[in-house]
Every structure is written in structure tokens, then in C-alpha cells.
Amino acid sequence: MLTRAGGLSFFVAKTPILCHVGHTRLRSLLYGCSHHHFKPTAYSPYIKDRIFMNKSAHFSNLALSATNKYIPESSAVAETMSNKARKKARRESPEGVLRFKLDMCSKRGDVVEALRLYDEARSRGVPLSQHHYNVLLYLCSCSGSNGDENVVNLALKRGFEIFKQMGVDGIEPNEATFTSAARLACAMEDPEMAFNLVKQMKSCGIPPKLRSYGPPLFGFCKKGDADRAYEVDAHMVESGVVAEEPELCALLGLSVESRRVDRVYEMMHRLRASVRQVSESTAEVVEQWFNSEDAAGVGEENWDVGKVREGVVKGGGGWHGQGWLGKGKWKVVRTEMDEAGVCQSCGEKLVCIDIDPRETENFASSLTKLACQREVKADFVRFQEWLQRHGPFDAVIDGANVSLINQKSFSFFELNSVVNRLRQISPSKRLPLVILHRSRVTGGPAQNPNNEKLIQSWKKSGALYATPAGSNDDWYWLYAAVNCNCLLVTNDEMRDHLFQLLGTSFFPRWKEKHQVRLMMTRRGPVLHMPPPYSIVIQESEQGGWHVPTITGDDLETPRQWLCATRTRKNHRHPQHLE
């Protein structure tokens, strides 16, 4: 394996990182320079924390210009060419051919062939773009999965050479460039350099992404350097980047190992707020904590009941945030909840955490904005006006999803059975709103006389809306359910790109409280209503914890929960003093 001195420090310390500063020309990242000339500073002890331009930046391959066989098109010729011809010319140009071949290498994970293509391109004088460099850096940074140590060492060494050459060529880096470089640094077991690269990215005006922070964060966690890992985490928060389960799990595990009990408490609540249901790997870390001696020894025995209750009310229920309560060994078991939300292990009833109506209003506004950006605005506004006239409804049905349950073909019979079942349980006894694409109500099974009659009856009752041609009906049924604050009948897991745009803060909570899932049986539809409790990490007023996992869905198999409690003492806890 390459050493840090021989690989990482040499290449990064001598790499000119260039970025735009306002509307000026490309300038050095770390120190000023006048328009065209870069003046490197002398090496200093803190060079490992910054990326300097060195005189070595000038040793670009000057001979390339003499042997360059590539002749760019003249602007006059380009202007007379059609768009199709220009695209074809770009594809067939040396740069276009190289781009295609490198993209193929990226798909195959073939770093060796990519490096050969790079060397060949440079020898022929083919100019490389930001995309070319980024593909090469990505392949070099991901070489660890290759399994061949010789290939890994080659990729790491060449990766930093390529990173350096990118700066020499004056190619402006972007987020992908820095992220790949940070991964290279982490592969060299230097999370410090990876973190510095993220900092430089931000100083360049390039917003770091979650993936940018992965290399330094996981690198420090692997080394057991808790303080530096927490510093990376703080930098993420400052940059507005929200950690997800892998990052929080790593920080939780590090906190357990480094015996930072307050940090463990913090990470548990961050998991509660952003992840809600945890994976098996995270559940194992949680179990490790509750089974540890540190967990048994930490906690307030005589806590202020009034203050704890005040915290519960302030937080909206399900947690208090007052720290570890109780003392002694924890009882940790895997268990299930009954239909009412009562733990089958400790007997505690989980709570249903309310959603602030203002959050729902804000979410509806955000949903409208997104839908109008991705749909024909006039079409979606027309639907909003229609909904204003005909709503509100007690339930909204994703017609296409329901009609295709257990069927290879679209079934209006199944859809109608769900409509009738929902009408029966509706407080107002009115029909639910059925959302279907226009093609579903004009062609195919819709042309059957019985189905035509059914469709007309729904239309007459104002219970059917046909979305226009070219639209995505997901926006329509989701907006209708949010706007009416009613039940949404669909088995759609709502995990694709559209729903990812809605974020992970409010939408999962709303979905949990409003989605009705469905099973078709010989006796008719079976509706699985939203649970009367929140499927999220809950911290009780007595100090116990219940952690839901993603194992089980409560539809076909019960969801698995982690229950952690301590023996409750019989003495009275002091009341809160006003």
C-alpha cells in the first residue's frame, strides 16, 4: 500500500485547485493572484491543512501542443451546422469518443482501461474536460472494490496524479471532483486531508453534499477519533447538510466505543427525528449501547417528573429530551406491538405524535410549488380549482394502484369494491375521490358498458378526476389527500424520485398517519388503517426506549421493535417546583 508521504501529501500539496471567484478569471483557491499569473508561496508547516499551488504546477506537458492532431471547428462552420450535425460532430470528435469510452469504463468499473485511455489521450493531445477528469477520479476513488491490491495501489497513485493534472490544466473542479479526491484521501487512510478538501470546496462556493462528508466522517470514525468526527458533523450542520442513518449510526457507534454517554443520547434523538425506523445494523449498535456497563451506570435516579412531562408536551409527545432517567442494568428485548400500540414485552402503550396543522399547510404549499414546476401549471391549477368546488373528501384513492392489485389487467370491479367499502366507513357517507389518468377512463376496460356506466356515476357525483394527458397522477392524488387532510388509499411505497423531492422531515410522518394500505381477498377488500400510534423511536416518561426496525411491515408480518427498560423503583419522584 502507498504511504501517505509517498502518495497523498506529495500530490495534494502540489495540486493547484482553481475555482471561480465572482466574475473574475480562474484564481488560486488559497491566495491571491493577478489575472493570469499564479505565485506560489513557500512550503510551511501547516501545508497539510491547506492545498497550495506549487511551482510544480507549471510542469504541464508543453510538448502536447506541438503534437496535437486535434483541430477545433471554426465558429463560422459551427454556426452553419444544424443542431443534429453539431451533436454528431461532438460525439465523433476525439473528446466525444473519449467521453463515451470512459463512461463505458465507469459502468464496468474498469479503472485499468480508463487509465490506459487517459494516457493515450494525453499522448495524442486530446483536451480533457471536467467530465473526463471526474470520471477518471471517480474510478480511481472506487478502486477498493476491485480486490486486486496492485490495481488499488495503481489507482490511488494515478488518482492523485490526475487530480494534480486537472489543476495544472486549469480545469475548474466541481462537487464531484472534490468528493472523489476526498475518497482518495480516505482510501489513503488520511481523513484529515479528506476533511480539508471538503472545507476547500465550501470556500470555493461549491456547496458540499452529504456524500462529500462521508470520507472524512467515516474515516475518523474508523480511526476512533471522536473529536474530529464530531467536528465533521458540526461542519455538516453548519452547511445545512442533514446526516442520514449511515452517518448517524457511525457517530452512535463511535460515541458508544468512546464512552461519550451524552453524545449517545444526542444521536438517539437525532435518529428519532430523521430516521424514525432503523435498519438491523443500527439496531445492533443500539443494543450494544443498552447492554453496556456505561448505559447501566448513567442516568438520574431522582428526576423531576414535572420537568419531564413539560418536555413531553413541548416536544409534541413521544420524547422528553431530559437525559437518561433511572439507574441500573437495562432489559433489552426484541418484541412487537399489538394493534393498539401496547408493547408485548413491557406493557407500555406507545403514543400517537400529533402533526402541527401549520406544518401541513406549509407542506401543501411546497407540494403545489413542486407540482407546478413538473406538471403543466395550468392543468394543475385547474385541478386545484376543481378540488375547491367538489371537496373536501374523507378519502382519496390512487385509482391505478388499487385497480391493479392482484390483477394483470386493470379492474374497475376491484376499484369499485374499495370505493363502496370506503363509503361505508366514511363519517359523511360520501364517495371517496378517485384519481385516474385520462387514458384509464377513455380506453381499454373503460369502454366496457358496465364500466362506462360506473365511470359516469362517479363523474356525476363529483367523485372522479381524470388527470390530463402527459401528467403524473401521483402529484394529483397526493395533493388532494394533503389538501383535504384525509385518508389516502394506495399500496405505493412512495419511495421514488418524486417523493424524495418532498424531503424526509414531514412527509414520512404525514404518510404514516394518512396512508391506508390494501389487501384483496375473496371476501372483498381489507383496509389496513393507519396505526393509532407513531412508528418512531419513543422515549417514555419513565426512561424506557422503544426503537422500531424496518424488519416487518405490520401488513403481512409484524414489525420488530427493540424495547429497552430498567426496573422501576417504587419511590416517588419529586414534583416540578414552579
Care to give the gist of this entry?
This protein has 578 residues and is α/β, with parallel strands linked by helices. It has 26 helices and twelve strands. The protein is flat and about 75 Å long.
Characterization of this structure:
The protein is an alpha/beta fold and about 575 residues long. It has 26 helices and twelve strands. It has helices at about 5-15, 65, 75-80, 85-90, 95-110, 110-125, 130-140, 150-170, 175-185, 190-205, 210-225, 225-240, 245-255, 260-275, 280-290, 295, 305-315, 355-375, 375-390, 400-405, 410-425, 440, 450-460, 475-485, 495-500, 505-515, and strands at about 20, 25-30, 330-335, 395-400, 435, 465, 485-490, 515-520, 525-530, 540, 545-550, 560-565. The protein has a six-stranded mixed sheet, with helices on both faces. A hairpin with a 5-residue loop joins strand 10 and strand 11 (about 545-550). Helix 7 (about 130-140) runs antiparallel to helix 8 (about 150-170). It is flat.
